[in-house]
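Lab notebook page, bench 4
Experiment: in silico fold of construct C2
Operator: M.H.
Input chain length: 341 residues
Purpose: comparison with the prior construct
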Amino acid sequence: MTDPGITGTGWAVPKRIREDDDPVYSALDRTPGPTGVAEADLFTGTGQRRVLSTDEEIESFMVDACQQALDEAGLDATDVDRIYGYASVPAYFTPNSLYEVHARLGMREDSLVVPLNSDFSNFLLGVVHGHEAIVAGGCERVLVVTGSNWTRHVDYRRGHAQAIGDGAGAAVLSPGGALRLVDHQTRTFGWGYSSMTMAVRPRQAHDWAGIPVGEDGHAAPTYLLEPDTGVEVYQTIMRDGLPDLVAELLARHGLSGADVSLITHQGSRALLDHWADRLSPAAYLETLERFGNLTHSTYPVNLALHAGAVQTPYVVIAAVGTGFHVTALLLRVDEALRPRQ
């Protein structure tokens, strides 16, 4: 069996920056919800966000991130057998824009396209499935990419909207590579199925109300964190379910936080600080103040930005996601295969 690793990474974000004092946040509702907590107080710590301009689309950034990853891996798009990932929010309910990324990259017609609608763990699941496909002999080279354009799909009255940013990240899996998947762990909590959803629904602002319409004239979906179950999930599964899962994964291999560099969901400074206290990682790789919450692209962007500087023997990537679920990957750093800086 082949032991594949991550042989290339890439990332791309828009140039446009949105600061805390941007007028779009003037309508932010700070009223305490059913749990007695104002949603706006849960999503803090963001300094800047990268935001798509009106003439930009997330697919272009996904292609750029993929090309960086391919170049680093020393491959052409025609060398890739499968592409996993997701563009969120796509232009259509189906197909996903991953097919368009396939076309723009010039990938072979016989390369398999596998959209993974598992926000926010799409990248993690792509790595798992790609690794298993290579080990099983189904293919030799895999590309994993996610792109997020959520700044166009949030209600700016809601607290979670103040952290959202746009961006894309990618990775290549192929034989060799300094980052090797050792294990993964997941937990699903079905009672939180409807706690966080993306659907066509009305939005409101200080000077406008109604169902938003995209540039194509079609009704645009809007993300919703439910005021009751959504906040409950934040305060339970997200807050302590994620570090519980990571601790269990590490213990299974006789490891502790001191052995790992940690990448997690990045929606709030309070969560990041709590997870750091719970897990005590040797290094916490994050970009919350620099890029905001890139939702499912948080993980590949941070991996691409920090992979070359990792000083620990292991990397853990831990995601939270709708549905509701938490998933974590344990990656081993093979120093013998690390590219020289």
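Observations: The domain at 183-337 is CATH 3.40.47.10 (Peroxisomal Thiolase; Chain A, domain 1). The helical segments are 58-73, 98-105, 122-135, 229-252, 269-279, 288-291, 298-306.
Next step: discuss at group meeting.
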